[in-house]
Structures are given as structure tokens and as C-alpha cells.
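Sanity check

After download, print the first record. It should look like this:
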Amino acid sequence: MFVRNVSLRLKPNTLSEFTRIFEKEVIPMLRKQSGFRDEIAFAVPGELDVVAISLWDTKEYAEAYKTAGYPDVLKILDKVLDGNPKVQVSDVISSTIHKPAAVAA
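Expected C-alpha cells:
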């Protein structure tokens, strides 16, 4: 399993709008993506930074989303984003929702 970790900064006073857009538009788009498993987004109330983590079956699915869906998500969120999000794709080495592949010591 792989994870896309997206760190983003919001414009001031847009957390509730971000949350609405994320739930009503972004999550439904993610559910249509091949290999998508789950999404969690979190922020400290009153702060501008948000982290969104999506879980994918394989690295290929996670990387395919980079061109097959993520550009549309950025367009949808453009009115609430302050700058470009930072994205990292990583192996999941431990999780309670799946059995990770053996990791070499």
C-alpha cells in the first residue's frame, strides 16, 4: 500500500470552505480513481495548514492519480489555496487497515 501525503496552506478564513469542497467534490472524485482506498485530512482549528493523506493499493495507482485526477482537484481547490501544495508519495510500512509487505531490515 502507498500513501500520498499532501501538505497545503489555505488562505485566511477558508477552512470551512475547504472542508465543504473537500467533502462534496474532492472525496467523490477520489472514490472514482482506480486503486484508491481511503483519505484523511486534518488541520488545527484557526490555523492555515492542512495535511491530506490518501491511501492507494499500489505505487502505480498513487502516481497515476498525479495526472489522472490531481490537476482537477487543484482547480477545484484553487479559491482556498495559498500557494502550491507539497506532495510526497511513500510506502506504508505499518497500518491497522492492511497487512504491509515485508520490509527488508
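If your output differs, re-run the checksum step. Summary of this record's structure: The mean pLDDT is 90.
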